[in-house]
Amino acid sequence: MNSLLKNRTYLDHNATTFTGPNVIEAVAEAMAVEGNPTAQHVDGRAAKAIISKAREAVGLAMGVCAQDVVFTSGGTEADNTAVWSAIQAGCKHLLISSMDHPATILAAENFGVSFDLIPADRQGRTDMDWLAEKLKSWDESLGRPFVSLVAANSETGVIQDVETATDLVRNAGGVILVDAVQAFGKIQMTFLPDYLAVSAHKIGGPKGVGALYVSPDAPFTPLLSGGGQERRRRSGTHNVAGIAGFGAACETLINLEHTRELRDLLEAEMKRMEPDLVIFGEGADRLPNTSFFAVPDASSMTLMMGLDLEGISVSTGTACSSGKVGESRSIKAMGRLDEAPKGAIRVSFGDNAILNEVEDFLLAWSKIRRKPLSFSTLPRDVVEDRPEESRQKTAATQIGAT
How far, in whole angstroms, is CA 157 from its chain's centroid? Predict the structure, then answer.
């Protein structure tokens, strides 16, 4: 599926993905409801009913009880709330995966609590042996252990061993936050931590709305104070339209396993063009839609801008910080900055990914880098000098379409 901008190919779905027509319809219908959901009159109850319906859908998609879902403004607020709750419950020292999103690491810094970063191996997998040893020798004066782990890294797509981490933390009497913002809707989530953070816009919902699951046994202190909405767990007037759209997106989730074939095809062709290509996390289990790679002699910002001019939307890493010039936190945590001295490019497919998106990317890359393109494994009707009008292919080329 191409971008709404004519003749563009959007390959930055880990940053945000397309909003489905059912979501837009749900948002529009919710905006037509005038009542405040905390009001007791008919209009208020109508708005409250919209939230209740969405909460059921989100809870079902997360695999948790709906009443334990707290709506937030997004994944960042959800992460911050969990960290804040742990600190207020007496956790004096936190353990945070070095592969985590800045929303947890910077929250700990801003809240003034000490923390250790759990190391990762060169494939980007969080070191469970290190975590086990740290928990085994835990100093009780530090309060209960609190561990934060991202389910899947937003840049590399590497999937973390959440089940093992959860068992380790529970056995040590601690609590664990899992940031599932990137994993939600892309892979099946079978784990149930104490806190679970997700975001709507990563699955085709509206931007600016997310959710935090809070286990009934987990400590909780509201991050925001005020009117006591969300059963006094998150004050502030509900974003009724956003929440409605979130619920609608959860009702139409599409597993992204079909994108693995496209991702692997793109990487195989890239290796033929770029013998020095480095694919981060290639040896680990990754999200099927994600590829994060570098060419040591090429600037990622220059490549991204060149691709942009050719009609291809990609990023240089996590969307929250990709507009800033600097090294990748993930690559640094993997100890591989020397392999990406000028940064890396992230390609991420959406649920309507089609073959010609791969073709468009490879053609643009070949032009920018002046590299020969063999298309050795692509359909024989693909040629380098395709006329512009042939860029738009039919849905017949879509892999995994239903």
Answer: 9
